[in-house]
Design a protein that fits this description.
114 residues; alpha+beta; Bacteriocin As-48, Chain A; three-stranded antiparallel β-sheet; two-stranded parallel sheet; 5 strands; globular; disordered N terminus
């Protein structure tokens, strides 16, 4: 057994299931290649925002996976989900991880590359 606070328990009702972010719109129409460039820039610089690199790696893998795999990734990495769309998460040490919506889904005003 152990004390109640020693680990996350699935039955405590606080475990959030991941869902897709709500539809969002970029300030101006954006192409798929521009969106990919934004994502790459974010993931390249994300570890500099603080937190642990392995958690950032897990969050990237989750952001790029389907929902069921993403849920397994964050659960196994010990990520605590604040917002079910993964925009705000914490690690077990309390470090905060904020993900912009553009790394989690595509905008409604995505346009075709020329």
């Amino acid at each position: 057994m152990g004390c109640a606070g020693s680990s996350q328990t699935k039955g405590d009702g606080n475990v959030k299931k991941i869902h897709k972010p709500k539809p969002w719109k970029h300030p101006q129409p954006i192409t798929k290649s521009q969106l990919m460039q934004l994502r790459d820039e974010f993931w390249d610089t994300a570890p500099h925002y603080g937190g642990r690199k392995e958690i950032w790696d897990a969050l990237r893998a989750a952001a790029e996976a389907d929902l069921s795999l993403a849920q397994a990734i964050v659960d196994s990495a010990g990520v605590i989900i604040q917002n079910a769309d993964l925009t705000v998460c914490y690690d077990e040490r309390g470090a905060k991880y904020e993900l912009p919506k553009y790394v989690l889904s595509e905008p409604t005003n995505l346009i075709q590359d020329a």
